Amino acid sequence: MNTRIGERSMRINSKGQVTIPAPLREKYDLHEGDEVDVVEVGDSLQIIRREGAESRGKRLTRHMRGKATRRMSTDQLMELLRGE
Questions:
Q1: What is the C-alpha separation between 16 and 30, in angstroms, rounded?
Q2: Is residue 41 very low, low, confident or very high in pLDDT (cuts 50, 70, 90)?
């Protein structure tokens, strides 16, 4: 299957990084911090979610474990959430 979404052109930076367009990240439920692999399939490259990688929710739970308390204000909890 050879599909082009919106004919978006992307550049690889000096670190070999490519920005995945927001509509594609949303469509495939990719979030900051997700682990992906780039694999060669035939004569093309594919981006796939890494098997066994922590989900966004698991990373967030691990980050907050031992830090959040019932007595925290909403603002304090939101600060922890943003600190992922």
A1: 19
A2: very high
